[in-house]
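During the practical work, I selected for study one protein's amino acid sequence and its backbone structure tokens, as given directly below:
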Amino acid sequence: MGHNKLKAAILGLNTNGRLLLEAARNAGNFEIEAVADTDTILAEKTAEEFQCASFDDYRQLLTTMDAHTPDEPRCLLVAANMHSCEEYIRMAIKKKFHVLKFPPPSRDFEETAELVRLSEEEETKFAIANSDRFAKGSIALREFLEQGKIEQIFLMTVFCSYSNQQYHNWQTDPKLAGGGVLLHNCYRIIDRIVSNFGVAQQVYSQQTNQAHDRQQRSYLVEDTTVVTLKFSDTFIGNIIASRRGGLGPEQESIHLYGHDKILTLDKNKLTLCDGSGEICEECKFEDDPKTCMTQLLQNFASSILEPEGNQLSCSARDNLKNMAVIESAYLSARTGFPEEPNKILQRQSGVPGIQTKID
């Protein structure tokens, strides 16, 4: 049975919330019923712009909105930080709302797995708004790999540098944030790695931050990390990531070293070189965040409104693989030993059917 529009509410009107809101309007298959933010004035102004109800209390929004029905499915688009809305996401799922959460899915693997179990028990969709899956760079990388343009990859190096322009106090607290640069800044690129190469066999990590002494450092999240990934006896990878102070552009790059080719993916360019550094092929692109998010939301809505033939491409279940890799990195930083993401996945016996490699 088809429906024209998916009724939606937005939780959190930060920069990510605004992106979700504008993309939902552009997608054409959403009807915005309400917006909510703890900033009352912001919520009211946004509601006036989008001709919908406004709330400054997340619980009130959910208690006011009608529950999902087969004839009028509803969804909650979440941009609010997890420590401020985890109980309301659970409430929404129990009211049969479909939920789309801005990445990361949650603060740790266990919390994500619990939400996956709950959504499946309630027969609702729980998805992650990782629009990078629809980015031209991600698509180009996947096509180059599928076409075998680089073979026998033995080394991957990833470099990420982010600025602290919008750094909030809660982001320094491990209990509230769950993690630092690896979880909140590197999530998209970890998804790109896992989607193309599967879950690493072993993960080893070292992490630190700029606190003045060791005692203080243990109570803060990391702003610098080095993660080593072992995919096989012949293929390893390395992620170097830092969240620095001050202004400046973000930097993300992936380098893949094969038998006789080197593949480099930067923000706006994918380059394939031979062993001597001569360019064999180059692909340039420009990604608009709103366009990518619009495509993701269209996929999310279609998987609910017309599920036959419209498979959800960003399910939280699939994202559990990313969270297992991240969880392994944090565990390794504490133990000083390599950790195995597959063991974390296997321990979640209540979450069956998780594949550790992409087919």
